[in-house]
Design brief:
3 domains, five-stranded antiparallel sheet
Length: 787
């Protein structure tokens, strides 16, 4: 008889701890998993090799030789297979549940720790519970409450049943029989509907039994602009028949407002911007007659314009917005008035206000906000009862207040990157875009119960809804960002670019270590979003940090010794946590920071002291200095109104940006208010508040974009304000992180290899009704009355 770890002649199943692996289907059944997970063929082959030698170290070379023979793969393929195996086996409560039961032996290979048993006969796999509604939300969002079923009728108590009259007792069998018949009828209808749905969704089969290819499934939307350029910030007419949007010219000299029908017709231009002007941010009035937009010119000039949507009347200026950062406005329903968000510059205003277009008068709304708050993208609900806005877009939470002003309340607590939003036509909720890992997605938020629903639209942002018809338009942008090392080329002039770690994924937030030898970055190159690490001199060392799902808002922070990192990651419930990572060993551990919503972690020069940027319920964030040697951690100092920070180890100071203003500030390592000073009063902007890096010798470098240069680099500070270089004229960079090597000044940044944006158009996805609500409709559709 074979031993428990000896393979039988024709194994069908493999037990690893308490997990069962069906070899033929490559499915892993784990006791704590909601559903079986299917392995790739290569991951299954790696598992078989490890299972044949349980408890023994299997080298990477052996795995490459046995699973990838006659090929020249990199170590990445082994790492990806091990990652998948650990995820599949990670739900057991024994050895198979610890790191997936697979131990990494540094610089050698892997060892399977769990008990192994090969089984030739069938076995019952663990029962898997059905999926819940919460699974529809990706791990980057907190799982919303599961949709509640209709309330059940409470069963009567024994005493109540004893006192029931005899007539009810005689009716009880008939009532029970009626309920049974109703249940059978509902089951039969459900089965018929299921089979009907399958017959509609299935493909035709040939006479020989092979499936016939019928083509790719239809997408729920179609692109109504697909010229390969940049079409942005769409707005739909109330009836959904027309769309206006800002389009970047082919020579990238500026943007114009284009209007077209929502079919394949050619667009026409709205307005007549001058040679050095750009029109953007179109907003369609609720009566469909006018479009408001912003016209920006040289030297920071800005005007808000209104023009007839049919192009018959001349445009006219209604307000100035000179030097405004993050301008936002929308129409007031059923009135010729515009609702503006917070404004900076020549017409600064700290809060939300209305502009009456007939009289030209401004009206400030009275509601709770602090001087440091910046309220963005305000919109009235279609029924006129509410105003929803984004408070501090650097943080990105949605807030709501009564239309007449008053107490504003937070609708979300995500500190997310909100990428546009709009109301649903019945005012019951809203649709918004937000950044999730390496892409933007659309979500619906139901306001009655504050429940979140993924609309299953990837690479989508800037939604706009036609209030009369429920049509939805949005921006679909699918950039592919690669990592580059950029250095000034003194011989030829300009910059020389070197591509790093080529892949078909999206790479972002490259952070070079202080010693210049290591690089970490975030990427979906393996099909899953993860943090990756490599020694720059050994590209073959590239591998993901296992057990860590990094946040996209803030990049990682290296220790001065280049041996560890502070990273914000998310757990399985979507909660942000502060992690400390030893990337060379591939280890990540959660730190016990007493912070509800950590946004960023920074090392100081003292190993016992850490800075943590913490999100607050008021909508802002504060930088707190902690002594982590005490249990629990002890707060030593606090700095309010911080959107991002960096610790300058050479100067022993914190450099940071604020919510309340553009520019850059510095404060000492103790966060002493007396040491606070401003480094730059114009850059970075609010929107690009993360697109700057320390460059050594007290210098700070920032990236921006102009009509003639997609990625422009400049040194910040009063003395260096005019020193700028074009790094990439025709390639945009991301706005969420890059780094500079301290030794040679090389810039590590993501640049778009392919880019572009088009406008998608579709029917607004309807909310799924409950079963009891849909039953009468199903009965009327499938049971015909007798004639």
């Amino acid at each position: 008889m074979p031993s428990p770890t000896t393979r039988t002649a024709s194994p069908e199943r493999l037990r690893i701890g308490k997990c069962v692996v069906d070899i033929a289907s490559r499915e892993v059944h784990a006791p704590g998993a909601r559903r079986p997970m299917r392995l790739t063929p290569k991951a299954m082959a790696v598992l078989r090799v490890l299972a044949e030698q349980p408890g023994q170290v299997v080298s990477r070379e052996q795995l490459l030789a046995e699973v990838w023979p006659d090929t020249l793969p990199t170590n990445d393929v082994v790492t990806q297979a091990i990652t998948q195996l650990r995820k599949a086996l990670a739900h057991g409560d024994d050895d198979a549940g610890r790191a997936g039961g697979i131990e990494t032996i540094a610089k050698t290979g892997y060892r399977l720790l769990a008990t192994v048993q090969w089984e030739a006969g069938p076995d019952n796999a663990p029962t898997m519970p059905s999926a819940t509604a919460a699974e529809a939300v990706p791990p980057s969002m907190p799982a919303p409450p599961v949709e509640e079923a209709e309330p059940a009728i409470a069963a009567p108590s024994p005493s109540a049943r004893a006192t029931a009259n005899r007539g009810r007792g005689r009716l009880q069998p008939w009532l029970t029989l009626g309920l049974m018949l109703l249940a059978l009828l509902c089951g039969a209808i459900g089965a018929l509907l299921w089979f009907a749905q399958q017959s509609r969704q299935g493909v035709l089969a040939g006479e020989g039994g092979d499936e016939r290819v019928v083509g790719m499934p239809r997408l729920p939307y179609r692109l109504i602009t697909a010229g390969g350029g940049f079409d942005l910030t769409p707005t739909l007419s109330p009836d959904g028949s027309m769309v206006a949007y800002a389009s970047l010219s082919n020579d990238r000299s500026g943007t114009s407002i284009l209007i077209k029908t929502t079919d394949s017709a050619a667009p026409r231009r709205l307005g007549r911007p001058g040679p050095a002007e750009s029109d953007r941010l179109p907003a369609w009035s609720s009566d469909g007659r006018e479009i408001a937009f912003a016209r920006e010119g040289a030297g920071g000039s800005c005007r808000v314009m209104v023009a007839a949507a049919n192009g018959e009347a001349n445009e006219r200026e209604v307000a100035r917005c000179d030097y405004t950062d993050l301008l936002s406005f929308s129409w007031v329903p059923q009135r010729r008035a515009l609702l503006f968000g917070s404004m900076t510059g020549g017409n600064a205003s700290g809060g939300i206000r209305e502009l009456d277009l007939e009289s030209g008068r401004w009206h400030d709304l009275a509601y709770n906000s602090s001087p440091v708050d910046f309220d963005y993208l305000p919109r009235y609900s279609p029924d006129g009862r509410w105003i929803v806005f984004v408070r501090n877009p650097q943080m990105g939470d949605l807030w709501r207040m009564p239309a007449e002003g008053g107490q504003a309340e937070a609708l979300t607590r995500e500190s997310a990157e909100i990428r546009g939003w709009d109301w649903l036509p019945d005012s019951s909720g809203l649709v918004f875009g937000r950044r999730v890992d390496s892409q933007s997605r659309l979500y619906r938020l139901d306001l009655e119960r504050l429940r979140l629903h993924d609309l299953n639209l990837s690479d989508a942002e800037s939604p706009t809804v036609a209030m009369a018809t429920g049509k939805l338009a949005f921006v679909q942008r699918r950039p592919h960002y690669g990592l580059y090392r950029v250095q000034r080329d003194n011989a030829r002039g300009g910059y020389a670019r070197t591509r790093l770690f080529a892949s078909n994924g999206r790479d972002a937030q490259p952070m070079v270590s202080p010693d210049g030898r290591q690089l970490v970055f975030n990427s979906d190159r393996s099909g899953e979003y993860a943090m990756w690490w490599a020694e720059l001199a050994r590209p073959e060392s590239l591998h993901p940090i296992e057990g860590l799902l990094p946040e996209t808002r803030q990049p990682a922070d290296w220790s001065a010794q280049s041996n560890s990192l502070l990273v914000i990651g998310r757990n399985e419930q979507g909660q942000p946590l502060l992690y400390e990572v030893q990337p060379a060993e591939g280890r990540a551990s959660v730190l016990a920071a007493p912070v509800g919503r950590p946004l960023q972690g920074l090392y100081s020069d003292d190993a016992s002291r850490l800075f943590v940027l913490s999100g607050e319920d008021s909508g802002g964030a504060s930088l707190v200095l902690y002594d982590r040697s005490s249990k629990p951690w002890r707060a030593l100092a606090r700095l309010d109104d911080v959107s991002q920070a960096r610790f300058d180890h050479q100067a022993g100071a914190v450099v940071f940006t604020r919510f309340s203003d553009v520019g850059l500030w510095r404060i000492d390592a103790d966060l002493d208010p007396a040491s606070l000073s401003q480094l730059d009063d114009a850059s970075p902007s609010r929107w690009r508040y993360r697109s700057w890096a320390l460059a050594g010798q007290g210098q700070v470098y920032a990236l921006s974009s102009t009509p003639t240069c997609s990625t422009l680099g400049a040194r910040l500070g009063v003395a260096a304000a005019t020193h700028a270089d074009c790094i990439a004229a025709d390639r945009f960079s991301t706005v969420n992180g890059f780094s500079i090597a301290a030794d040679d000044g090389a810039i590590y940044l993501p640049l778009a290899d392919t880019d572009g944006a088009g406008i998608g158009f579709m029917d607004l996805p309807k909310r799924e009704p409950s079963f009891l609500g849909v039953l009468p409709k199903l009965l009327s559709q499938h049971i015909k009355p007798s004639s």
